[in-house]
Amino acid sequence: MNSAHPNLPTEAPAAVSFWQALKFWIKLGFISFGGPAGQIAIMHEELVVRRRWLSEKRFLHALNYCMVLPGPEAQQLATYIGWLMHKTRGGIAAGVLFVLPSLFMLIGLSWLYIAYEHVSWVAGLFYGIKPAVTAIVVQAAHRIGSRALKNNFLIAIAAASFVTIFALNVPFPFIVLAAAVIGFVGGRMSPASFATGGGHASSQTALGPALLDDDTPTPSHAVFTWKRLLKVLLTGAVLWCVPMTLLSVQYGWDHTLTQMSWFFTKAALLTFGGAYAVLPYVYQGAVEQFGWVTATQMIDGLALGETTPGPLIMVVAYVGFVGGYVKAVLGPDSLFLAGALAATVVTWFTFLPSFIFILAGGPFVESTHNDLKFTASLTAITAAVVGVILNLALFFGYHTLWPKGFGDAMDVPSALIALGAAIALFKYKRNVMQVIGSCGLIGIGVQYWP
Question: N or C: which end of the chain has fewer CB within 10 A?
């Protein structure tokens, strides 16, 4: 990085106003493609290297905290930095703008999908995208596994996780709990088995003074106090309880909107390891338990989530829209409005915990600048997540390559598209957007093939 910055600045940049920062958060919401790794890389380049709003050490300190939380780490990192720079309103602005463009896009795309899924070119588009999604999930399992499975003990945890969810159909929360217990006990019996490095590479190269540098005193609003913590927790509880109570009173506990709110609150607390880890849990609830979407629609929804900016967990907005639309929660004459309302409700309950985690825990994190360490329990959970994602890849592959079951012939064009997508991802390192776009066009071609 020295060669890229031969003339290091000697002074920190000028103070950044809330409105100046707001322009960046708006921009980030529209360019945050590439999953958490890509989104974090964008923020690092923009905020640490180019703008020098905060130092490398402070950036990684915040990132380490976000990585041990359930929820989308890149969105939480944006929230953390926004809060650190401009208090609560800065954190809320950064976090909301990280997901808002994606929410609007998914509402529009979900409506086009559910209203026109039988139009031939739309059907062809998704015919090509679904095999690509299978390859993308396999790549995710490989990427996380290569980082997390550092020894035979962790590999064994991943294998056991796969067997329990694939063969025994054990719910995802129980797998997380079991992995946490194994890590807690095993970390004390054999600490070396659970020692891992940081998940993101860091550069120690100096970039010049930053606005929030290594030795910059903690801002007054970021100093930990019990009073501030209690205020955040009470506010978060009110923001959760009020809409949940209104939905329960207005529609009843068993209504689709109420059950979505409760279900996705639980899902938000289980997203250790990213969106791919919680998707099996979402599938179990949304497809098998409540019937909000079909298995095919779930795969298509992941494809839509991959093509929009923002965290991949935003696929829950698609699940909400389709479920609200299909269940006609506002009556048969207001299907689009029902879907949009359900998508918004689901997004609210999915992301509210992330804001509470950052605003409540941020001051505690800022009270020390020592690097946070992954606990043994979280290391074990991450290993278990690899097995869960591998099961998800098999689930997608089965429904894509044998859409009518193993009793019928394999869908050869889908298999070839999946193989081509895997080669593009693994060998030629093409990004997700290029692979999905290309496979979608191939699918349209197959649809119109005589």
Answer: C
Measured at the CA of 196, the angle between CA 191 and CA 197, to 5 degrees, comes to 140
How confident is the model over 169-203, as pLDDT tens digits? 887 778 878 988 898 888 888 887 876 544 444 44
For 428, how many CA atoms within 13 A lie in the half-sphere containing its CB? Answer: 11
Q: Which residue has the tokens 């529609």?
A: 251
**pLDDT per residue over 102-135, tens digit each?**
999 999 989 988 888 767 787 788 788 888 888 8
Report yes or no: 78 and 338 within 8 Å, Cβ to Cβ. Answer: no
Residue 127 tokens, joined: 């015919």
Q: Whole-angstrom Cα distance, residue 450 to residue 442?
A: 14
Token digits of residue 38: 């890509």
Please report, for residues 65, 81, 123, 195, 267, the alpha-carbon distance to residue 62 in angstroms, rounded to integers and kept in the order given: 5, 8, 43, 20, 23
Which pTM does this prediction carry?
A: 0.74
* Residue 125: both structure tokens together: 């588009």
Find, among 398, 381, 375, the residue nearest to 158 by Cα.
381
Residue 362 tokens read as 């941020």
DSSP 27-54: HHHHH--SHHHHHHHHHIIIIIIIS-SB
Cβ contacts of residue 53 below 8 Å, gap of 6+? Answer: 13, 16, 21, 47, 81, 85, 210, 211, 212
Residues 6+ apart with CB under 8 A from 28: 42, 43, 46, 78, 94, 97, 98
Separate counts of helices (H) and strands (E) for the chain: 16, 0
Residues 432, 142 contacting (CB under 8 angstroms): no
